[in-house]
Design brief:
two-stranded antiparallel sheet; 10 strands; 14% strand; alpha/beta; single chain; 11 helices; binds NADP nicotinamide-adenine-dinucleotide phosphate
């Protein structure tokens, strides 16, 4: 029992399961609901969606269909950039809850610091949702250290997480360090670099050594870092299961050094309105 609890703890980051399921571009109603259901019944307990993914309803259907209690699921969604004015945050967050078919979400993110984002106007709305019990945690996404400093100054609620692109070709050392220093968890999105990690020789070599998949290696490399969770998107049962196997893959120092040594740098999600552009 003690061992089981230890294992469970290792898989959680401040109550957030460290391996979750991403759902961007999983928009077909049947496929999306089925992948969420399969993931939950396989053991996943963290599901990531967003207003902009146009699938909150299907994600909600998958949660309702699964033989898992809603209270046991860590559900995250994000407010799109055009909805970041105070009243729109409140109003569209409630619409998201309706589409998801839930009374609260475990984490609500500001999707990008862009468009209608204005910390003094936007973030008090997140505080209000938090105080009203409609959201359990406040998160941000695609924030740089300067935005994180500003958000922490304005928010009353703790800043729980910053969701950013992160994988072996974009290690995000500065943001990981910021997160550790300020108790802001990192949620790694596009943790497979949208498929690009599969072609990296160093990842292939480590995968071969452990008789694992390249996806598992990329995920295990992320999950071995303090303060980091990862949300690979997978829509087929095989991929969902393969990624879940990353929790059982332990990389040794030599493997980690090899992956840390990859000098190819790539960013897969890079819209013109991103704060780094
Ligand atoms: P990703 O997770 O890096 O890669 C997804 C791709 O890899 C899909 O084509 C998927 O195929 C494939 N795949 C998954 N597991 C596989 C496996 N074991 N073997 C082979 N192929 C596999 O990309 P992502 O969707 O960009 O990122 C993940 C999640 O992060 C998103 O879904 C979303 O929830 C979140 N995200 C957030 C932001 C943000 O701005 N906050 C931006 C991007 C992404 P199948 O679908 O066919 O299984």
């Amino acid at each position: 029992m003690a061992q089981r609890e230890e294992l469970d703890d290792e898989r959680l980051l401040d109550g957030m399961p460290r391996l979750g399921l991403g759902t961007w571009e999983n928009t077909d109603a049947g496929t999306c609901a089925e992948s969420v259901r399969q993931a939950l019944e396989m053991g996943y307990r963290h599901i990531d969606t967003a207003q902009a993914y146009d699938n909150e309803e299907h994600v909600g259907d998958g949660i309702a269909d699964a033989d898992v209690d809603r209270e046991d699921v860590f559900l995250a969604t994000k407010i799109w950039t055009s909805n970041l004015a105070h009243e729109d945050v409140i109003h569209t967050a409630k619409e998201s809850l309706d589409r998801l078919g839930v009374e609260y979400v475990d984490l609500l993110y500001v999707h990008w610091p862009a468009d209608e984002y204005d910390p003094e106007d936007t973030l008090p709305a997140f505080d209000q949702l938090y105080d009203d019990g409609l959201i359990e945690n406040v998160g941000v996404s695609n924030f740089e250290p300067r935005h994180l400093d500003e958000a922490q100054d304005v928010l009353d609620a703790p800043l729980f997480a910053n969701q950013v692109e992160m994988h072996p070709m974009l290690p995000q050392d500065e943001l990981v360090e910021y997160g550790r220093d300020n108790d802001v968890n990192i949620v790694a999105y596009s943790p497979l670099a949208r498929g690009e990690v599969f072609d990296v020789p160093e990842i292939q070599e480590v995968a071969e050594k452990h008789d694992a998949s390249a996806a598992q290696v990329s995920l295990a490399w992320l999950l071995q870092k303090d303060g980091v969770a990862a949300i690979p998107k997978a829509s087929s049962e095989d991929h969902i299961r393969d990624n879940w196997g990353a929790l059982d893959l332990e990389l040794d120092d030599e493997d980690v050094a090899k992956i840390d040594g990859i000098d190819r740098r790539e960013r897969e999600v890079d819209p013109g309105f991103a704060p780094w552009n």
